[in-house]
């Protein structure tokens, strides 16, 4: 556990222990509600560590083993947590940020605020915070808070029947988080980025999408706004492409990070 | 950091099962479950209702006990998603016994 400016965050760090020249740091940010650092820990993290990267994973506030305050769940809170965490871990050089879903939105927000501190950015099934993003998250979170948090037993019975036992248990955890915190109200009310702020992110950006996910529709917009953007669409996958196809996703990230590290 | 018993020179499935069951009880105690029966066929997901973040805790306990020879993340990273969901205590025990033997042979 690391105290990141008044909040205790669960951090896992892995990588070379040879004590030689500093290794590039990659920070892995997970998604909302049902997610935790485990989605990286058991997928791409071992390969990243074996490739010589200093790998930092943490549970977002309210998630996994991190502290769950009742309030304070806007995007700005999450970006401030990342700033405090990197300070606390004494990571000073430019970092490679990888974000899955909402984690990518946090990573992009950090890069927009600190362009000089980010070596590369990977957005897995993710997008920058825009007004359209906030409206979409508002709709999703409204459904979670009304259907799940307030009619939980009916909703869980439906999910168990249609999506299976494992998804139902994840949904229970999501309902608890939505009930115990203001997350459902805070995230849609987050401050979003202007087009100029999005354009200011000039580091290499990799977008990874599931071919069956509607987020792949965002590729043209990102290509128009970002000076150094490349996209990978993995057919046959949806929003959970990271845990379903970790080999492919991790390989593309290592390609990007390797190229970025060489240029530095 | 102070295991109750030292790791035996020839760990068997039985001794490793006893260790792993103890670690799982530590993880489950956080949920208030303290009377769980754990055997080789027990599944992490369906029987113990462990979430993936609980397996991160278990990975830390395994490393504390056996050192870096036993790396749960590497073991699991080679599996398909469905395989992880169906993972049993027995498969983990076999992996631990195998890792400790491989280490001596290597």
UniProtKB/TrEMBL annotation, chain B:
Origin superkingdom: Bacteria
Domain called Carrier: residue spans: 7-92
Pfam hit, one: PP-binding
InterPro entries recorded: ACP-like_sf, PP-bd_ACP
Protein name according to UniProt: Phosphopantetheine-binding protein
Annotated source species: Streptomyces bangladeshensis
